[in-house]
Amino acid sequence: MVLTAAVHLPEESELTVQEVNLSAATLRAGSFHLGKYCEQANNEFMLCRIEENDPRKCINEGKAVTACTLNFFRKVKSACLNEFNQYANCVDKSSGDYALQQ
C-alpha cells in the first residue's frame, strides 16, 4: 500500500490502549482458556480484517480483543494466581519451544 495524502492514518490517541504486558510463557499457559474466553471478540476482529482488507478499519475490534485479554488475566489473577503461575513456570522451563515435556 502506497501512502499518499489521501490515505487517512489514525491518530496516536486512537491507537493507544493498555498493553498486555505478559511473558510468552504466561500467554502460552493461558492460551487455550484465553482463546475460548475471548472467542467472540477475536472472531469479530478477524472477520473485520478479512472483510475490510484494511487493518485501520478494525481498530475498535482490536481494542476489544485487548480489553478481553486484560479482563481474562485479571480474573485468572483473582481466582487462581498461584496455580496458574506454577503452570506457566512449568511451561517456561519444560523446553525451548514451550512444549510440555517430561
From TrEMBL:
The lineage of its organism: Eukaryota, Metazoa, Ecdysozoa, Arthropoda, Hexapoda. Its main location: mitochondrion. This is (diamondback moth) hypothetical protein. Belongs to the complex I NDUFA8 subunit family. One of its GO terms (cellular component) is mitochondrion. Accessory subunit of the mitochondrial membrane respiratory chain NADH dehydrogenase (Complex I), that is believed not to be involved in catalysis. Complex I functions in the transfer of electrons from NADH to the respiratory chain. The immediate electron acceptor for the enzyme is believed to be ubiquinone. GO terms for biological process: mitochondrial electron transport, NADH to ubiquinone. It is found in: Mitochondrion. Transmembrane segments: none annotated. Keywords: Disulfide bond, Electron transport, Mitochondrion, Repeat, Respiratory chain, Transport.
